């Protein structure tokens, strides 16, 4: 693990555990958590060719000490990251989201604003981030276009209001 003076570390990207898919989770080992001064549930920024955010959870013991980060394909895409390549991660603060606006990336069923909030509660979001939600036997894909308050990262809470822009992008 490479640590620099800006309290960030470099870790090699590996595929997420199946149970973590589409949940906005990044798993790292306890040494990296200590280096970043984060604990379970903290928010981290992941920087590859782009940047995104995720909640931290510890790796399973079988992966401990391997200097890796386990993230799903969606998070890899949002970060511009590639499996087996390093990304930089650092601790970042998230502010509770008041309002979040998303645009569907494909046709979606009506009235899913409440479902978005309920499914994403506790998840950090950035602008332009893609999100995916299970919906019966399908996956609904959206992109975050705006939110308030205006800041780098927001955290979805039970009070967050979602708005869905019309059309698809």
Overview of this structure, please?
This protein is mostly beta strands and 169 residues long. Helix content is 13%, strand content 41%. The chain is built from three helices and 14 strands. The strands form three sheets. Strands 1, 2, 3, 4, 5, 6 and 7 form a seven-stranded mixed β-sheet that branches. A four-stranded mixed β-sheet has the order 11-12-9-14. The longest helix is centred in the C-terminal third of the chain and has 8 residues, at 113-120. The radius of gyration is 16 Å and the shape is globular.
List its salient traits.
mainly beta; Vcp-like ATPase, Chain A, domain 2; 2 domains; 4-stranded mixed sheet; 14 strands; 41% strand; globular
Largest sheet composition: 7 strands, mixed
Helix vs. strand class: mainly beta
Strand content: 35-45%
Count every beta strand, where a strand is a DSSP E run of 2 or more residues.
Answer: 14
Mean pLDDT, as a whole number?
92
Distance between the termini: 38 Å
Percent helix range: 10-25%
The unreliable regions are none
Put simply, the count of helices is 3
Under CATH at level 1, the class of the largest domain stands as Mainly Beta
CATH topology tier name of the largest domain? Barwin-like endoglucanases
Instruction: Supply the number of structural domains.
Output: 2
Morphology: globular
Short summary of the structure?
With 169 residues, the chain is mainly beta.
Topology readout:
Elements: E1 2-3, E2 8-15, E3 25-28, H1 30-36, E4 43-47, E5 51-58, E6 68-71, H2 73-79, E7 86-91, E8 95-96, E9 99-104, H3 113-120, E10 124-125, E11 130-135, E12 138-148, E13 154-155, E14 161-164
Parallel strand pairs: 2-6, 3-5, 8-13, 9-14
Antiparallel strand pairs: 1-2, 2-7, 4-5, 4-7, 9-12, 10-13, 11-12
């Amino acid at each position: 693990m490479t640590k620099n003076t800006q309290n960030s570390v470099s870790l090699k990207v590996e595929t997420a555990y199946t149970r973590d898919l589409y949940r906005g989770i990044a798993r790292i080992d306890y040494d990296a958590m200590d280096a970043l001064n984060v604990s379970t549930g903290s928010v981290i920024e992941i920087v590859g060719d782009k940047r995104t955010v995720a909640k931290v959870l510890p790796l399973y013991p079988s992966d401990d000490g391997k200097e890796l980060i386990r993230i799903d394909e969606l998070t890899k895409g949002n970060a511009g990251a590639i499996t087996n390549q390093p990304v930089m991660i650092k601790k970042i603060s998230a502010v509770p989201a008041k309002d979040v606006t998303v645009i569907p990336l494909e046709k979606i069923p009506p009235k899913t604003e409440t479902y978005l909030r309920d499914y994403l509660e506790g998840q950090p979001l950035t602008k332009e981030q893609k999100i995916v939600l299970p919906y019966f036997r399908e996956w609904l894909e959206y992109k975050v276009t705006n939110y308030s308050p205006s800041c780098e990262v927001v955290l979805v809470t039970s009070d967050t209001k979602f708005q869905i822009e019309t059309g698809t992008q």
